[in-house]
Amino acid sequence: MDFKRINDAILDGNIASIPQLVKEALDQGITPEAILNQGLIAGMSIVGQKFKANEIFVPEVLIAAKAMHAGLDLLEPLLVKSGIKPKAKILLGTVKGDLHDIGKNLVGMMLKGAGFEVIDLGIDVPADKFVKKASEEEDVSIIAMSSLLTTSMPSMKDTIEALKMSGLNSKVKIVIGGAPVTQEYADEIGADGYAPDASSAVDRVKELLGI
Fold this sequence. Notes:
Rossmann fold; 5 strands
């Protein structure tokens, strides 16, 4: 199997061809894990690099992510059956006071495309919801928060303080991002990482987890 065909189909956003290419690979006896890593994840990695270099833009990334998910839908049951686990579990949400979700959704897609399990809490997420979900879920490694408004940025600080109060900050790393957010603000409120865009978010998460 030439994995480049899967990589290219993802890059081109060719949603219709991905299931067929994945089935072909499975029929050839290639393991679901190899198809995931060398086909889907490698394809999304190229998308991420091109996005970071401003060679492609948000609409192309969204279509590429949909193509990747078309393959992932076929592989997930097989991966679970064979005991393959995601690299890590990540909680994701837009903080309280903010209803924007395009950037958050893009980060979620890129993280899934990189082999992470993503639990998306949605928009307007209060601090206690982040804490509650992180307490309930096993093995949460990262909490990723988005804010597109300067007025909602203090909610990031509130969430970090709530996580500290609960003791969860010793178990999870916190990454923040969004148009008005800066590295300086991340340092100020005690976040573990900051990412200016979706592709950088994947890099930052990998760096924090030592992957």
